[in-house]
Design goal:
The complex is a heterodimer.
Chain A (H helix, E strand, L loop, with lengths): L14 H4 L2 H15 L5 H18 L3 H8 L3 H14 L5 E5 L2 E4 H27 L2 H12 L9 H31 L9 H32 L18 H20 L3
Antiparallel strand pairs in A: 1-2
Chain B lengths: L12 H20 L1 H4 L20 H15 L4 H22 L6 H14 L1 H11 L4 H33 L5
Helix pairs in contact in B: 1-3, 3-4, 4-5, 4-6, 5-7, 6-7
Classes of the chains: A mainly alpha, B mainly alpha.
Pfam families (chain B): QueT (PF06177)
InterPro entries (chain B): QueT
Protein name (chain B): Possible membrane protein
């Protein structure tokens, strides 16, 4: 198996690491919703304080959070700039055609920037403290109520775990095929667009057929072992709701209520 | 498998494992080109796999799932996991249904590229919603950049999927 690390998980024993994946998942969704209710200094400040406490309790160094910002830096600059140039009201400092910069627009730009930071921080905490497999388990638990309407949650969960299982395998195979084609003289890194697409053919075709072969073999193996349905699968790791989850939920809910009270209506 | 586990085009173990490895393929391709895969001007080459929805409806589930897992790594995490994945699901369903009425494979793939590009307005709306009072300028700016990225990657994907389909029967 490849030593490639999927996702951004950092092992640890912090409070956040020990929480159950389903509650971490739900808390991050809830937090993102609350962020959209924030609309003044005090609401953003209280959410920032909460997220800083979470970051400290996750035991993850701040450098990892900065890394999470890097891929989105252009998106952030783009959105904040448009926000500054297009929002109206307040004391106008600069004005040109449809564009203007005022004190209100600068403040709004600042809010949008903080909003991005908050979302990036919460999702970084989630992915750094939870393995993809645990998140998949969390998703299964969260979707369980859909079973009532006959949605095949277990089938989906099984597909999730098979997919995650094959990521390192396919990664390895891709590496092998790349090397094999390179040794035959294929140049993947340079040339025109047309040339690069042509170079991708001897990479993707074997990768695809290889993947389908894995699927065929796996299904034969599963059927040979008497696999009939994905509903009665047992689990190696069982994540239970703990006191830590309850305490975190109470804290998050309190901050949510606080935000609703102190926001501008 | 019993009838309860029947999910959009997945009715037996073979369908299930095939869909799962295609999800894995989507994740692998997203990760290999990770630096280009997220953000406003994104060239997520795995989106080229969207064209598979033309061949079999099981790939609708497969790619939606792959997109969901890949979005776990996105810096906008929860937001992308819901909105981005939802966009993919709706786009793939439309591609699968619309292309049933088209006979020629190149035309089917062309339709799939256009549909995929069109639906990027959902992702643009997600980005625009983040910048609330400048909604429309942000929306059109983001729509333009994401649509260009999607059009390029899905066109490349369509060519590659077409070549794969010559050697492997993707319908079965």
């Amino acid at each position: 198996m490849s030593n490639f690390l999927f996702g951004r998980y950092l092992p640890g024993k912090s409070w956040v690491h020990q929480m159950s994946p389903q509650s971490k998942l739900m808390l991050s969704f809830y937090f993102v919703i609350v962020i959209f209710f924030a609309n003044n200094v005090w609401t953003y400040a209280s959410l920032s304080v909460l997220i800083l406490i979470v970051v400290v309790m996750s035991g993850v160094s701040i450098g990892y959070f900065l890394k999470g910002i890097r891929p989105l830096i252009w998106l952030i600059i783009f959105t904040v700039l448009l926000q500054i140039l297009f929002s109206s009201g307040g004391h106008v400092y600069w004005h040109f055609g449809p564009f203007s910069v005022s004190d209100t627009s600068l403040i709004n730009g600042g809010y949008i920037f903080v909003r991005f930071l908050l979302i990036i921080m919460i999702s970084t905490v989630l992915t750094l403290t939870t393995t993809p497999l645990a998140i998949a388990d969390g998703v299964q638990t969260v979707l369980k109520p859909l079973k009532k309407v006959h949605f095949p949650v277990d089938t989906l969960a099984l597909m999730l775990s098979i997919a995650l299982r094959f990521v390192p395998t396919l990664m390895d195979e891709m590496e092998t095929i790349l090397n094999a084609q390179r040794s035959r003289g294929v140049d993947f890194g340079s040339g025109s667009l047309k040339h690069r697409i042509q170079a991708a053919v001897p990479l993707l075709v074997p990768l695809f057929t290889g993947a389908i072969n894995h699927a065929e073999n796996l299904s034969t193996a599963m059927e040979a072992r008497g696999f009939t349905d994905s509903e009665h699968r047992s689990k190696y790791r069982v994540y239970r709701w703990q006191r830590k989850d309850t305490i975190s939920w109470v804290a998050f809910l309190l901050v949510g209520v606080l935000v609703l009270f102190i926001r501008n209506n | 498998m019993n009838s309860k586990t029947n999910l959009f085009g997945i009715s037996n173990v073979r369908d299930l494992t095939k869909a799962a490895v295609v999800s894995a393929l989507y994740i692998v391709i997203t990760m290999v080109f990770a630096a280009l895969s997220f953000g406003p001007i994104q060239f997520r080459f795995s989106e080229g796999l969207n064209n598979l929805a033309v061949f079999n409806k099981r790939y609708v589930v497969a790619i939606t799932l792959g997109c969901f897992i890949s979005n776990m790594m996105s810096s906008l995490g929860p937001l992308d996991m819901v909105v981005g994945t939802g966009e993919t699901l709706i786009a793939l369903l439309t591609i699968n249904i619309v292309t049933r009425f088209i006979k020629s494979l190149p035309l089917k793939l062309a339709a799939s590229v256009l549909i995929g590009t069109f639906y990027m307005f959902i992702v643009a709306a997600e980005i625009a919603y983040l910048g609330n009072s400048a909604f429309w300028p942000t929306f059109w700016g983001a729509y333009l950049t994401t649509a260009i990225g999607e059009f390029v990657t899905m066109t490349i994907g369509a060519v590659l999927v077409y070549i794969i389909s010559l050697r492997y029967d993707l319908n079965k």
